[in-house]
Design goal:
The chain is of the alpha+beta class. The protein has one domain. The chain is built from five helices and 14 strands. The chain has a six-stranded antiparallel beta sheet. Strands 2, 4, 5, 8, 9 and 13 form a six-stranded antiparallel beta sheet that branches. It is globular.
Length: 274
């Protein structure tokens, strides 16, 4: 075998340079064939396979676009303030403070400090979920036969643990997550109705309002009724831009949102970051 020796293995590995697979990061991101931004501004370009995860630290003002390429991606998202991971996405406050359980354009993703972590600035899907979180090991093992990260049906929480560890975080740091591209609504009797996907090509764009550690797991939604583990590629693109500022319509869209932006601005100004 060509890889039976160290030299053979080295030569085989080096021969793969420049090879591309369907789902992988593009490094440097500037090599992405069709950037959605000005030349040189792209900072993250990746296609995440179904049943896989990714993570990145993004600067304040960065815009992050997620795209459901084939119609069966489900992007489970966690956000942490970079360097201050105890300030993190709080799904309950995101819903409660804005009087809205449904995600979409104009929604702010909040921490439990009353500050904005990210803003949803564009959405062509409308099929998202802030109620159910992601899948767990026990559930996937019972439903698909296995939920470990190396299996054919990894659970979202197990993948989040791996992404967290690569950013100095532990399982205790993982709160409930949001899900994009597979929707859930609440019926009059309080039961949940799975609305599924809006179809291939739907996208959602977020704007980082603080420096963020971003964790993403692309796995089936936990209440997806299909018996098979169905998860297709997710496109992730991020580029340099500017944070939301006073005068932006999003800043003043609601009294609650304006207060959250003011809380964020005051905190960043005191730290010399704004």
């Amino acid at each position: 075998m060509a890889t039976a020796t160290t030299y053979g293995a080295r030569d085989h590995a080096r021969a793969q340079e420049g090879a591309r697979t369907e789902a992988m990061p593009v490094v440097p991101a500037a090599d992405w064939p069709s950037p959605p931004c000005a030349a040189g501004h792209l900072v993250w370009a990746e296609t995440v396979a179904g049943g896989n995860y990714t993570h990145r630290v993004l600067a304040r003002g960065t815009e992050l676009r997620l795209t459901d390429l084939r119609g069966d991606a489900c992007a489970h998202l966690l956000l942490f303030v970079d360097g201050r991971p105890w300030e993190r996405l709080n799904v309950a406050d995101t819903v409660k403070v804005q009087w809205n359980a449904y995600l979409g354009e104009g929604v702010l993703l909040l921490s439990d400090q009353g500050r904005v972590l990210a803003s949803v600035i564009a959405d062509t899907s409308g099929r998202h979920d802030a109620l159910c979180g992601t899948s767990a090991l026990a559930r996937n093992t019972a439903r698909y036969g296995d939920g470990t990260p190396q299996s054919a049906s990894p659970a979202g929480r197990e993948l989040f643990k791996l992404a967290a560890a690569k950013n100095g975080l532990t399982p205790r740091d993982l709160p409930p997550s949001l899900s994009f591209f597979q929707g859930v609504t609440v019926d009059e009797d309080g039961s949940l109705a799975f609305t599924g996907s809006a179809g291939p090509g739907a996208s959602v764009t977020l704007r980082a309002e603080q420096d963020l550690t971003v964790l993403i797991a692309n796995v089936p939604h936990p209440v997806d009724p299909r018996p098979d583990y169905v998860s297709t590629p997710l496109e992730v693109l991020a580029w340099r831009a500017a944070p939301t500022a006073p005068g932006d319509p999003l800043w003043d869209a609601t009294p609650e949102g304006r207060r959250a932006f003011l809380n964020t601005a005051e905190f960043l100004t005191a730290r010399g970051l704004a």
